């Protein structure tokens, strides 16, 4: 069994805590040394108590889902002898009511755009199969209760 971790650090500073007028900005520290600035979403807590330049937890969930899917897709494509030149995904999530007065992510939609080159070009069915298997193997998608859809496209690199 693998374990994954992150240290989340927040400090109030001089701001008053009562009344909710404190910053929600904080740091995510990862074992490799990366530090990511986090905050509540401005959709949840208005500026100046949230930091719109920081990553909010909902965005992080979408990014983790997209990244996991992409990494599996690239691995599978390489195993099958395809050459991927580029992969871009404008992933998004939809938040809404999940019952009992609670809110949650209702769906994550991936929109990958993949560029292939090389002597072996896939067809639509092959790309669809790569995405299906990547989705089945994605640890993050397997961990979510909400729907995760892949609605992407692909193309061949320009012949030069």
UniProtKB/TrEMBL annotation:
Pfam families linked: OsmC (PF02566)
Domain of life: Bacteria
Signal peptide coordinates: none
InterPro entries per the UniProt record, alphabetical: KH_dom-like_a/b, OsmC/Ohr_fam, OsmC/Ohrsf, OsmC_Ohr_Peroxiredoxin
PANTHER family on file: OSMC_OHR FAMILY PROTEIN (PTHR42830:SF2), OSMOTICALLY INDUCIBLE FAMILY PROTEIN (PTHR42830)
UniProt protein name: OsmC family protein
């Amino acid at each position: 069994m693998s374990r994954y971790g992150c240290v989340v650090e927040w400090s109030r500073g001089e701001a008053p805590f009562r009344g909710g007028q404190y910053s929600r900005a904080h740091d995510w520290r990862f074992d490799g040394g990366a530090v990511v600035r986090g905050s509540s979403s401005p959709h949840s807590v208005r500026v100046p108590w949230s930091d719109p330049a920081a990553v909010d937890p909902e965005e992080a969930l979408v990014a983790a889902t997209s990244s996991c899917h992409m990494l599996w897709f690239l691995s599978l494509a390489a195993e099958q002898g395809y050459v991927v030149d580029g992969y871009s995904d404008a992933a998004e999530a939809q938040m809404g009511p999940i019952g009992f007065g609670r809110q949650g992510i209702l769906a994550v939609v991936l929109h990958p755009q993949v560029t292939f080159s090389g002597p072996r070009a896939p067809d639509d069915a092959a790309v669809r199969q790569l995405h299906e298997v990547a989705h089945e193997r994605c640890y993050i998608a397997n961990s979510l209760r909400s729907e995760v859809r892949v609605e992407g496209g692909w193309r061949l690199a320009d012949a030069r």
